[in-house]
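REQUEST FORM: STRUCTURE PREDICTION
Request ID: SP-0412
Submitted by: Lab K.M.
Chain count: 1
Length (residues): 140
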Amino acid sequence: MSKTQNLTEFHAWLVRELNKRSWSRQTLSERAGVYPSVIAKIWNGEVGLGPDVARKIAAALSVSQVQVFRLAGLIDEDVLGDEVDLGEIRRGLAQITDPGDRERVLSMVAAAIWAAAGVRGDAVVGQPVKPGTDDTPKDM
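STATUS: Completed
RESULT:
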């Protein structure tokens, strides 16, 4: 899927999610803890969605990070390979009762996925930053 298709699909989904909640972009910005200018740039298709903002939007909307990452084109099932069973990971995480431990495991899983994709997971806006580059977004 192309970058434009990802942005279009993500935008359509985001419009539906905000409408369901009767939220404005400002409300999303406040609840996600993301600058309104970043939400506006994503909304207008000026920049892609980075992993940090994707996580914040997922939390604000109480939806799966994986869902947001897929819709935004940040993760592709092909990257995970056939040997990874997300259901098995989910079942394993459900057995971890300590929230701190669960968060650490989720962080490790996310880092492994980003490493497999060759993407640095700390990009904030725009396309994810490839390792070894200094193309860190300057917007925030």
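NOTES: The chain has eight helices and no strands.
Reviewed by: T.R.
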